[in-house]
Amino acid sequence: MRWLRLGGGLAILAGVAWWVGPDPFVTAVRSAGPAAIVVALVLTALTTVCCAWRWRVLARGLGVEVPLRDAVAAYYRSQFLNATLPGGVLGDVHRAVRHGALPVVADRGSGQAVQATAAGAVLLLGPAPWASAVLAAGVCLALLRWPQVVAASLLASVGHVLVFLVAARAAGTDASPGELLPLALLVLLAAAIPLNVAGWGPREGVAAWAFAAAGLGAAQGATVAVLYGVLALVATLPGAVLLARSWGRGAVRA
């Protein structure tokens, strides 16, 4: 499975490069300016706190106590490992080893479920006039049953979408936020597909296809997705600092 995931991610990236050429990859790296990086760092900090809070709530419900400060640090380390190691889940494995597997599985599963539900509502029901009422009713029902988990997951999803919109603007996309929102949700869903190399692969492939279908161009979609990946990677660098500090403390104790 490990080699299948890596091979699938590399194959998708190769297919995107063959389709749009190397220019979108170069343009994306050049477009990662200081303003976009600072905004991505701030938004990722907020989404990290939301995710850590969700994990803490779920862990407490399962009888595991994780202080919020420790949860935020562990989540940063997890995000950095997910963004730099093959497979895109090794950071969660690291978190599970240190804090217990069941709370981490519940955290990851609940977050993806809420994101998929919200994205499905926007993508499938958005054009309908009664969509907002249906979505509001569904959100209210979920909030009554799992208020903290759903609220934290929705806030985290909003943060990821905003980083995508920042990447789109930095890459020169002139489409409106309303036009970009369904594309962002679709691309972020694709990023969770396990056939990837540290998150790269399906995200770029779906972005190229979705932007082409929307009339914005496959090359532009690939540029935005790559730039989003660059911004997301840079925004997880605090996790590298925390990971190095943790390893340093372990070496001192040894």
Automatic annotation (TrEMBL):
The keyword Membrane applies. It is found in: Cell membrane. The chain crosses the membrane at residues 32-53, 118-144, 150-168, 180-201, 221-244. Keywords: Cell membrane, Membrane, Transmembrane, Transmembrane helix. It is a multi-pass membrane protein. Pfam families: LPG_synthase_TM (PF03706). The keyword Cell inner membrane does not apply. It comes from the Bacteria. This is Uncharacterized protein.
